[in-house]
Amino acid sequence: MRVGRWSAVLSLGLLLGCATPAPEPDPLPEAEAAPPAAEVSPAEAPAPTCPEASGLCLVVQPEDTLVVVDGDEHGMVSSIGEAGARFIPLSPGIHRITLRREGMQTWRTEVTVAQRAEPIVVELEEMAEP
Length: 130
Known about the structure:
Layout: H1 5-16, E1 55-61, E2 66-69, E3 72-76, E4 86-89, E5 93-100, E6 107-113, E7 118-123
Parallel strand pairs: 1-7
Antiparallel strand pairs: 1-4, 2-3, 2-5, 5-6
């Protein structure tokens, strides 16, 4: 194997102790108290705690958003289950989810529901003005 001239010189310098190691970085300053926590949007929030059942566990903002599953309206998010994590029982399989609210962009997806609830965390975005 052929070694380049500079590579050989550097290797020889390291072997003979001629090369000096890089200085150690300064230690990081002591951590200061964290600022107060800001409100976290649903998109940044951790997944909700869902029941041990087959279905959807929804965290959607705004809560006056209409939920449509496989073409069937399930009402406004605020009227489904309890605040925090709204649960819609569904059989295992693939389901089409649509979230609609006037003045907001419609959100659509397909989810595969298994034996446990599938968490859906969404914050609808306002429609862009023309």
